[in-house]
Design goal:
The protein has five helices and no strands. By secondary structure, the protein is mainly α. Helix 3 (41-48) crosses helix 4.
Length: 79
């Protein structure tokens, strides 16, 4: 059985609703988790086996909602 079919079947069995259910979805999820844990793009790229940071950035999408939440943070009286 192809890796795509294995991953797709497992996503379905777990009831995970997502647009993509193949092995690349797992790479994206892994990269996103590593970004959330604070790893650098270099560290993530090494983990995923990438030669360049640009390849890593394809997988390690930035969580815009989290960035907006940080951007809206009230600093109070600080100058």
């Amino acid at each position: 059985m192809a890796i795509y079919a294995i991953a797709n079947d497992r996503f379905k069995a777990l009831g995970i609703a997502t647009q993509h259910r193949g092995p690349h979805a797992l790479r994206h999820a892994c990269a996103a988790r590593l970004v959330a844990q604070g790893l650098s793009f270099k560290e993530i790229g090494d983990h995923l086996g990438h030669r360049s940071t640009s390849a890593t950035m394809t997988y390690a999408k930035v969580n815009l909602a989290a960035l907006r939440e940080v951007g809206d943070f009230d600093l109070g009286e600080l100058p």
